[in-house]
Amino acid sequence: MGWEALKLWGDDVVRVEPLTGGVGLNEVWSVRVGGRLAVARLGRRGDADLAWETGLLRHLDRAGMPVPVPIPATDGRLFADGLVVMTHVAGGPPETEADWRRVAGTLRRLHRLTLGWPQRPGWRSSADLLHAETGTRVDLRAMPPEGVARCRAAWARITGRATCVVHGDPNPRNIRMTADSVTLIDWDEAHVDVADLDLALPHDAAGLGDEDYDVAAQARAAWEAAVCWDPTGTDPFAAQRLAEVRAIS
After folding, report:
1. Alpha-carbon distance 57 to 63, whole Å?
2. DSSP 8-state class, residue 55
3. Keyword DNA-binding: yes or no (predicted)?
């Protein structure tokens, strides 16, 4: 059905402008629903995956955490044919060390609110990938074996710790800040894992200390290399992140 599914949110829904180039997993547009600005995302995620994501966002919203809230279609559905419509979030990216400390506080709140949360359907955690080779966008078989060994060594350093939902991609583009709130957007990479994957922030804003920051930064670099690796091995970001993962004797 594609973008035709927007009619399920009402006869007056209109697309305003694209917010992405329409490449990758999703195409994202600003839309107007009932005269109010919102965001619509069309992608290839299955129903179980979207049910997990929208259920998580509603849980966080009920707990008082600022998040993009799924807007139900006229029949009550929170998604249809890969399409999700969410509230628009205003604000700008973090810029200062103090901003990043606020981001760290928001991430830690997310982690506290989701201890024991079930895994996103089809996903693997970093601990799972110590033995498994595939999971959602990760296919370790496509990576150089020596690189896989380095990634697994980095993930092994965070095993045994409590798991929760991690946002998975807390970069400045996915953060909206105002004087009163910090909101994480784009939950496409969210899954259940060790909190450290979210906490290797600029200025060590989460207060990990040198040793724990290094552990978290290495695990996150390994994760991003694995998630972004393509079969040709030509993705420059993935190659850069893999190069940052040190060999551990």
Report:
1. 10
2. H
3. no
Torsion of CA 201, 202, 204, 208, to 10 degrees: 20
162-211 tens-digit pLDDT: 999 999 999 999 999 999 999 999 999 999 999 999 999 999 999 999 99
- Enumerate the CATH 3.30.200.20 domain ranges in the chain, comma separated: 2-87
Q: Look up residue 185 and give its two tokens.
A: 């957007």
CATH number of 2-87: 3.30.200.20
The CATH number assigned to the domain with range 97-244 reads 3.90.1200
Nearest of 81, 112, 90 to residue 39 by alpha carbon: 90
With beta carbons less than 8 A apart as the criterion, state whether 213 and 200 touch.
yes
Q: Where in the chain is the domain with CATH 3.90.1200?
A: 97-244
Residue showing tokens 């955690």: 125
| Band of residue 24 on the pLDDT scale cut at 50, 70, 90 | low
The span from the CA of 104 to the CA of 80, in Å, is 33
Side chain identity at residue 54, one-letter code: T
Residue carrying structure tokens 């559905």: 77
